[in-house]
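Q: What structure does this chain adopt?
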Amino acid sequence: RVIEVGTGTGFSSAVIAVRNRPQVGVPGAPWVETSEANDHYRGDESVPTGGDIATLIPEFASSVRTHSPRQSDFVDQLARPNELQFGFIDANHRQPYPLLDLLRLARVTRPGGWIALHDVALGTLVAAAERAGKPLPFRGQFGAEWLFKVWPFGKVKSGHSGAVQLPPKKREIQRVGKTLMKLTFEVAS
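A:
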């Protein structure tokens, strides 16, 4: 099973489900649990959270279970400690949210397991666009980028996504948290 934090329209949920489908041992059981803080995609009432899942994978859309409105604090209700090998975070990218999501997902992910992060270069890309005179309709968000950059354990990156490997002793993640908590928060008080 996989837990995703940040469903959006459900595109990533569908991709994960398609990738995992041949490995499922229980027919009809959901193997992607995805949570989203909002009932609708970016506030658009015409697009429900996870609304694209049934269109993208109609033959086995039931393999994805969407939970909204829910944030990463709901992860503990979806899996037992150290149950998962993989998780995915594509929720709020502003500092400190990616760290908080990772800490919550790490509780249910095995030591040595992987947590993928989307938009690990978003802040830098937005800043580059602004410098080039092509401002975007949103500000750069560095939370996922900073988390990936300071991660001292195993990690891989491809395009806009990266994945971090949990250390054998998960308490070692505390140093990452201490480093990131010294950085500017990107959320309004």
